[in-house]
Amino acid sequence: MKLKLIYTMFEDRIPGGLSQGMSDDLFDKEQLARGIEVEMEHTTDRLIAKEIAKDHLSEDPKYYIKLAAVEAD
Q1: Among 6, 14, 36, 57, which residue has the least CB neighbours within 10 Å?
Q2: Is 49 exposed, middle or buried (0-12, 13-18, 19+ CB in 10 A)?
C-alpha cells in the first residue's frame, strides 16, 4: 500500500482537484484521451493535462463532447 501512496504522490502534479486519487479506469478512455489532447494546448506536461482532463470529466463525463460542439459553432 505504501508503494501506491508514493506513486500517487508523484503522479499528482496539481494538488487537490475533483479527481484527486481517482483511477484512470473510472473515466471513459476515449473522453480522457480527447481531454488530454485538448489540455495539451495549455501545458507541455502530459500528466498535468491528464489531471485537468480528469477534473473536467469528474464534473461532466461529456465535457469534451460539449466543448467540441461549442467550438464547432
Answers
A1: 6
A2: buried
